[in-house]
Each structure stands twice: as structure tokens, then as C-alpha cells.
Amino acid sequence: MSRERTNLAKNLVGFSLGETTYALDIFRVREIMTPLPLTQIPKPPPSVVGVVDHRGEVLPVIDLRDRLGLPSSANPTRSKWIVVRGTTGVSSALIVDAVTEVLATAVSERRPVQVGQLTHGGVQEVYARSVGLVFVLDVDTIVEVGVNLALGGL
To answer: Which phi and psi angles does 142 have, rounded to 5°?
Structure first.
């Protein structure tokens, strides 16, 4: 059975890392899940904390705080995973502090992104909302380390 979205204006999945709100394109998000036990791998790429067997697929698990250069969580056991699919077809799980909401964005809320640290860090868009800025991440840039691991063979 195919799921139809009732509000097509809601195009982002919001989540938090500390006090900052981030988001991902809703069409790139496969699911939101509670963390599973990790399997460690030898010499993992930076930000990859291990892999997990999920629904018959081995997923690299990426610590998004580490990937974005943020300090470690004070309470890592209270996290969620967002499973995303890159354009290569490889899926990865991203560790976030909490999933907040499905967001609708308006063109009037969009702010220009300066090329440099933000875009190299994976930020593709920024929206100004009543609660502050929302940084929209580019899934392919963020999961690049996991894709290289998956395509290189585990």
C-alpha cells in the first residue's frame, strides 16, 4: 500500500543536535528508529561509529554530531536514528539527539547560504523561523563517509 502525504507543503524532517535545529529533505528519509546494537568495524572512516544489520541491509551508522564537528552528546543513550538514502542508493543511519517535527518551509523564510564552512559542512539551505534558524543538510554530503565504506565493501 502506497502512503500519500496529505500536506505537500511539509517537505523537511526536523531534528535537534543540542539547541540547534537541523532538517533533511523528507523524500530522502526512509525511517526514524530507536538505536540498535552496533557492530564495530576495523578502521572505520571518521564519524562512522559502526554498522547495523537492519531489514536485511548493513547500514553504516554516522555520528552526526561528530560529522558536523559538534561536541559529543551529554546523554548519547537518549538519541534517535534517521535512516536516509543517498542518490547512490546506499542507506545510512544518522545519530541525532531528537526528531522534532515535519516542517513546512516558505520561500520568504529562506536565507542565502554563503559558500564556505556551511556548505562544506553539508548545509545546503537555511530557513529563518520563529524559533530560530533551521539548517537543512545535504544528505549526500553528510553520508559520503558511509557511502565510501559501503561501496568499498565491509
So the answer is: -65, -45
pLDDT tens sequence across 119-153 = 567 888 899 988 889 999 999 999 887 666 655 65
Does 14 map to a domain? yes
Angstrom distance (rounded) from CA 143 to CA 46: 11
What pLDDT, on the 0 to 100 scale, is given for residue 153? 57
Q: Are 14 and 82 in contact (CB under 8 A)?
A: no
The label of the residue with cell 568499498 reads 152
**Residue 82 and residue 97 in contact, taking contact as beta carbons nearer than 8 Å:** no
- Rounded Cα–Cα distance for residues 93 and 82 (Å): 5
Instruction: Name the domain count of the chain.
Output: 1
Query: Residue 108: CB partners within 8 Å, gap ≥ 6?
Result: none
Q: Is residue 4 part of a domain?
A: no
